[in-house]
Give the backbone structure.
Amino acid sequence: MTIDELTQIKATALAELAAAKTPDEVEALRIKYLGAKNGLLPALMKQLKDVPPADKPQMGKELNALRTAVTDALQAAKDASSSAGEAVEPFDFSLPGNWTKAGAMHPVSSVIEETTRIFAQLGFTVADGPDMETEFNNFDALNTAKHHPSRDERDTFWLADGNLLRTQTSPVQIRAMLATKPPVRIINPGRCYRRDTTDATHAANFHQIEGLYVDVKPVSLADLKSTLAHFAREMMGPNVKVRFRPHFFPFTEPSVEVDFSCHLCHGKGCRVCKQSGWIEIAGAGIVDTRVFKHIGYPEDCYGFAFGMGVERIAMIKHGITDLRHLYTNDLRYLKQFV
Ligand code: PHE
């Protein structure tokens, strides 16, 4: 073994490795040069002990350099051959994608979202309130007499600490007014609770959307009606009309019940409107000045308020005849409204 021989081996090894194209060729060269059994370099290493002592240091150094050079060249050849093997296939952008169903909104949620969007166009912002309320916010401040039947244990879920599960979203009127000065323009979608036995049109847990507009200038029933008429047309269709019927609520004076003309039969009479041509949607009215008094609000304020049933709107919009379908969450049923 001479230095010249080692130089020669190195040149050959590097040339062969540079020419190797496939992973198999590279592997064959690895075995040829570094293979533990019959590899050339391990064999040369073994011969080192026969080299005359004077030449040993020089020869050992050369051998190590040769092994490093071959190892590096092998690694480089390996990287090049494996990436050459993975020829990148051109991506075909015209192929149909992999579809995953995104899911859809529940009819109750989509009515809430749609309503919020429509009132946002009129400058109403969304206010919030808790499901657990004080008696003051749910009844007293809303001018509800102490003996009013809605306070009865058979109607309201009272809690041990004297609070209650709100029976309506109207307490959010109180919260919104206490939080800001007029003008106030809010809507509040939320859950309500009443001790109702569940049937096709009642549930102990349901949703309402409350609306409140309070200003320091006069606000009239005409403002209320035009606001609700705009909502009706946006929600149900451009030909839907609104009518008011006199009613009573402790916190509005005058009070009305609000009907929309039936969007399915256009007033002729059908199954959804029970042949009347009209569908009851909301309670509403002009805010009673006594409500302003109860919460220490300026008395020269004016306002209107309304409260609509979300499930009701979802039911008539989609022709759902049993409210319980909205809560059993059978996907086969709910998928129809996507
Ligand atoms: N809170 C009333 C109800 O649940 C509806 C309503 C809201 C009436 C606002 C007037 C004003 O029946």
About this structure: Residues 56-85 form the longest helix (30 residues). The first strand starts at residue 125 and ends at 126. The beta strands are 125-126, 132-133, 164-165, 184-193, 205-215, 242-249, 252-261, 278-287, 302-309. The mean pLDDT is 91.
